[in-house]
């Protein structure tokens, strides 16, 4: 099990993007705590790794998960006009920690 904390601007497709990112990294959400205040969202996810058929090691799996979650955080917010909105805060990803 891995615990990851994320903080970023709230957007309509955030949950969908998180789900897709975790699937691509062979992860499954076991528990999620999310809070949105003032247009920002903080998510604490407990993720179970699915290693079936994986030839990579534990560190490589964690790096794959970190990259997938970072891609979600780095996705720009596009309003209906198609122009990128300036963010007043940068997205943050806290390093995943192993849970035993």
TrEMBL record:
Coiled-coil regions listed: none
Domain of life where this protein originates: Eukaryota
Compositionally biased region (Basic residues): 89-100
Provenance organism: Nelumbo nucifera (Sacred lotus)
CDD domains for this protein: ACT_UUR-ACR-like
Residue ranges of every copy of the ACT domain listed in the record: 3-85
Protein name: ACT domain-containing protein
Annotated PROSITE patterns: ACT
Keyword terms of this UniProt record: DNA-binding
Region (Disordered): 80-100
Alphabetized Gene3D superfamilies for the sequence: 3.30.70.260
PANTHER family membership: TRANSCRIPTION FACTOR BHLH30 (PTHR45844), TRANSCRIPTION FACTOR BHLH30-LIKE (PTHR45844:SF16)
GO molecular function terms attached to this record: DNA binding; DNA-binding transcription factor activity
């Amino acid at each position: 099990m891995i615990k990851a904390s994320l903080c970023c601007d709230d957007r309509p497709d955030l949950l969908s993007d998180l789900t897709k990112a975790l699937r691509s990294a062979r992860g499954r959400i076991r528990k999620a705590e999310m809070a949105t205040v003032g247009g920002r969202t903080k998510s604490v996810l407990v993720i179970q790794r699915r290693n079936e058929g994986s030839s990579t090691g534990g560190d490589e799996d964690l790096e794959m998960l970190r990259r997938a979650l970072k891609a979600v955080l780095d996705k720009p917010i596009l309003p209906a006009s198609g122009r990128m909105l300036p963010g007043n805060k940068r997205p943050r990803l806290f390093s995943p920690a192993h849970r035993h």
